Description:
CATH architecture of the largest domain: 3-Layer(aba) Sandwich
Strand order of the largest sheet: 6-5-4-7-10-15-16
Helix content: 25-40%
CATH superfamily of the largest domain: Translation initiation factor eif-2b, domain 2
Oligomer: single chain
Radius of gyration: 20 Å
Strand content: 15-25%
Bound molecules: 5-S-methyl-1-O-phosphono-5-thio-D-ribulose
CATH topology of the largest domain: Rossmann fold
Largest sheet: 7 strands, mixed
Shape: globular
Amino acid sequence: MTTRDTAVKTLRWRNGRLEMIDQRFLPAMFEYVSYESAASVAKGIHSMVVRGAPAIGCAAAYGVALEALRQRGESKETFDRALNEAFEVLAASRPTAVNLFWALKRMRAAWEKIAAQPVGEIADALLAEAHEITAEDLRINMAMGGYGAALLNDGARVLTHCNAGALATAGHGTALGVIRSAVAAGKHISVIADETRPFLQGARLTAWEMVQENIPVTLITDNMAGFMMSRGEIDAVVVGTDRVAANGDVANKIGTYMVAVLAHRHGIPFYVACPLSTIDLNIADGSAIPIEERAAEEVLGFRDYQWAAKGVKVRNPSFDVTPAELVTGLITEKGVVLHPNRENIAALFR
Ligand code: MRU
């Protein structure tokens, strides 16, 4: 299998800095923001400059590396203190996507292996590890794409929710990676993109990615999916995920559960593209997955404009949990796990 660079480079390393596309303003503006410290990367993750589980993991790894490079002239004691603080601030940036914690764990393990060496060498090794995590993510997405593409028939009309594309990863994407790979294999695939209220990842990001590559895409509001399914206009659903529990329950962008229930009602396969780094064996089932609650402003209106009544109470859970029984298959880099459960998920790690 070959991996090719995708057109969209969500994160890039330039002149000793991390640069990330500012996804808050896409597609109106395409702009990279530059980062030099762990605290600023944590802010970038929290404010959604970068989002999407695997991309958050890569950004956090670079956040640790940036801090190590910044402290390379310091004493061992100062270096260690600053690096421990970097891990803490990055871990607090967003709670749901487990890839963040997975990447931090890997960076800590890389540090611990060589903790006795001079700080300059540790910094170089941590940067190499962040590069490797990022390169690996692209390879994994290509592998998942291959397995997932085989599940889609030529001519399939595929619904997706949120953005699990190149923008949410180091490249290619997870759910959109499956679609890209199917298209690359010569299949005629069209995408139905849920707009994904309230942050509009579907309308702003998924639609943009597909339009860039001339993959046919139709945008719908989230409440239209049931209608489309009832009219036989959707053949499969493919989404990404932020954390999969040991029993196969899937946390993903708010609204995913609704789509899964509808797909089940209409006998439409519901696939979840899921790198192993997104599976959390420490969480027994979906009820224990931490769900981020975001600011009320996102629901009250968009950017500076408020359309909702002043003083109204708001809930804004950013993710929901789809029970494993509604999942037709998890598409992983090791193959497709049909009807995920505790046993077949554990087998992925043996
Ligand atoms: O709040 P976001 O935009 O970070 O949420 C992203 C999602 O829910 C994605 O579907 C998920 O992270 C998978 S990305 C490959």
